Amino acid sequence: MAVEITSKIVGYRIKQQEPAVPVPELQDENPLTVRIPSRPEGTLEAVSEKISYVGAEGRKKVYLLVSFMPVEGVIGGKRVVIERPVEFFFPSGQLSSEHQWITATMRSLSLAARGGYVTQAVADLRKVAWDKGLVRCGMNRWNKPMFHDSEVAAIAWSIQQILYRRGFLDREGNQVPVEQLVERYAHRMTHGHAWQPEEEEATDAPVERGAAEPIGEKAQTGKKSEGSGPATVGNCPECRGELIMMDGCPTCYAGCGWSKCG
């Protein structure tokens, strides 16, 4: 813009550039522990899985739904995004008894997920035991059946499997470091599909094709191992399933419930 000078010039001064306003440094905020007040509105990505297990009341099949959402945070002054589970849902009407406790447990898990401590909560559920005997659910990495101390423990193991295959937990059920979660979410955004366990663990022991690598290899299996796990003692005369010793009596856990002691 031109300025008309109407008086005599007696001096001049060069205008100094104003100092740049410093940009405040972002404070670190771990996206794993960011509290999510409530389930966000709208649609969330979810994994629906059918869980099959065999307990004292025979074989049961139930469905479980786990929802995920991206969560922002700050690591080393840089904004990052990871994916976290935020909701666990167990559709009603699947079990005739104690459904209120199952619903309460799923609500508590959802609160733990939004509070940032779902890994510990699921691990604690795996320690729940009952007096109705072992529950058979899932296969280990050697394609042998796994046994759990209760139905709750079996469902918790199945939840860990979902979170492992999604890349949120490692194969032992431990929390994956946030730096790896950032990389896995970026991989998902770049390649259009979720991170797969075999992409990072190709050098480990092979797994049967079509079966996910299970969590908790130290859990009980159908063969007697060092210090834990029931031993198989033959095959069931009714269904040819494996027999295990239970209360001093060979008992079938393959589905028919046959027992030598009646």
Automatic annotation (TrEMBL):
Top-level taxon in the UniProt lineage: Bacteria
Region (Disordered): 192-232
Protein known as: Ribonucleoside-diphosphate reductase
